[in-house]
Design a protein that fits this description.
Length: 332
């Protein structure tokens, strides 16, 4: 009972965070103008293509998960894996990170695979996803550094704030004090919950990389990892062609927007509500897109993407028991 109450409170807290951010960035927008553009000025053919590319990424993720499960002496049906993944996405819209546990529980039930071992594969999967995002970020940083500098020069007040932050004696003084405290109290810090959590995360990181290296089909795994993230990127980039104000942006502008928006998903709000919209709007602003137009783009992109996850997730939730009636009966 206490666990259920805690989960409800978590949902309210996370949803409130996203809702507040969403309200703050959209409260001053012209709703009539947004409706006008979404009704008359959007080429929805590109939206459907975007959803198709997103679906391909989810299928590829399912195949990649099967590759990780095979060393556990199991070969689950790809359909079961795919439906479990989509249920996981659906649950992530309820509580951040809840989807990872949910999809492991679903696949464990229908394919009779050890739940803790499945969780281990998902931890490895998430580690690889973080590495992929960082690779994209480094690429954007090197290829678009001049664009970022140009943006700062076009916005002197932002450039001034950035310079003030970097040269702030308070920042550097605080950093020196922080490092000194770590050195002085390092033995005490080793026994803290935070340090142990970091240590456990690093251990899982190492274990995950080793498991990929020892995987029989590691090149297929690496190929799917790149394919998933390329599809994520293209899923956003093709939507640029739906609007007059973004259709002339370059593929690198799309990649920058995708990477910065992805960091919005890290915020503690279900499905990146609010935070994803904010990061997308700010990224598009770098390339001269009006913030109001950027918010319209973010609203349509996020709404269609989330709607697809809800629809396919609910369908997966409903049909999975029927597709596995024999397995469940045999197990019971």
């Amino acid at each position: 009972m206490k666990k259920k109450i805690l989960n409800v409170l978590k949902f309210i807290a996370f949803f409130s965070v996203g809702g507040i951010i969403f309200w703050l960035i959209y409260k001053d927008q012209d709703i009539a103008r947004i409706k006008e553009i979404l009704t008359n000025d959007v080429n929805y053919t590109w939206i459907w293509l975007s959803l198709f590319l997103g679906l391909l990424s989810h299928i590829s993720r399912s195949i990649r998960w099967n590759l990780m499960i095979e060393p556990l002496s199991h070969k689950p049906r790809l359909l079961n894996t795919f439906l479990s993944v989509m249920i996981g996405y659906l649950m992530n819209l309820v509580l951040p990170r809840m989807g990872e546990i949910s999809r492991c529980g679903v696949l464990s039930r229908y394919e009779k695979i050890s739940f803790p071992k499945l969780v281990g594969t998902v931890v490895t999967e998430r580690i690889i996803d973080v590495i992929m995002l960082l690779l994209f970020f480094v690429f954007v940083l090197f290829t678009q550094f001049g664009q970022f500098l140009g943006f700062l020069h076009r916005n002197p007040e932002i450039e001034h704030n950035v310079r003030s932050l970097i040269t702030s004696p308070v920042l550097w003084g605080g950093l020196v004090i922080f490092i000194a405290m770590i050195i002085v109290y390092r033995r005490t810090l080793k026994n803290t919950i935070l340090f142990k959590k970091i240590d456990e995360t690093l251990a899982l990181f190492k274990e995950g990389l080793i498991s990929v290296r020892n995987m029989k089909k590691k090149w297929a795994f690496i190929g799917h990892s790149f394919f998933i993230w390329i599809m994520y990127y293209l899923m956003m980039y093709v939507v640029f062609f739906s609007f007059d104000f973004t259709r002339d942006l370059t593929p690198l502008a799309g990649l920058t927007t995708f990477v910065l928006a992805s960091f919005g998903m890290v915020a503690p709000s279900p499905g990146g509500i609010g935070s994803w919209h904010f990061m997308t709007k700010e990224a598009l602003w770098i390339y001269g897109i009006d913030k109001g137009d950027g918010l319209i783009f973010a609203f349509l992109m996020h709404t269609t993407m989330t709607s697809m996850l809800i629809v396919i997730g609910l369908i997966s939730f409903l049909i999975l028991p029927f597709l596995n009636r024999r397995n469940v009966t045999a197990k019971s």
